[in-house]
Design a protein that fits this description.
Distance between the termini: 41 Å
Structural class: mainly alpha
Number of helices: 3
Number of strands: 0
Largest sheet: none
Radius of gyration: 19 Å
């Protein structure tokens, strides 16, 4: 992917930067994995610093792509129901 000079995404991650996912949310996810006997390779406390370091690298880009690819709420409900939504500006015809 080509980088723009004015990009909001850093070329190098800042190891001291914060991420939006909390440690408690991570522990909750690990507990769910344990419930289904998913093999966990290490203790979450030991893995957390590396996890944060990696997540800093991709979190903003991942959320940007996810947000841009989500249908609007109005369209999303229609898709979930298996029908197309009426145009947002023109109403049903």
């Amino acid at each position: 992917m080509r980088r723009r000079r004015d990009s909001a995404y850093p070329d190098e991650p800042d190891p001291g930067a914060a991420i939006t996912l909390s440690y408690q949310e991570t522990l909750d996810a690990v507990a769910k994995l344990h419930e289904v006997d998913f093999p966990i390779g290490c203790d979450p406390a030991d893995a957390w610093p590396d996890f944060v370091g990696w997540r800093v690298s991709y979190e903003l880009a991942a959320y940007t792509v996810a947000y841009a690819s989500m249908p609007c709420q109005r369209c999303g409900r229609a898709y979930a129901a298996g029908r197309a939504a009426a145009p947002a500006t023109g109403g049903a015809r």
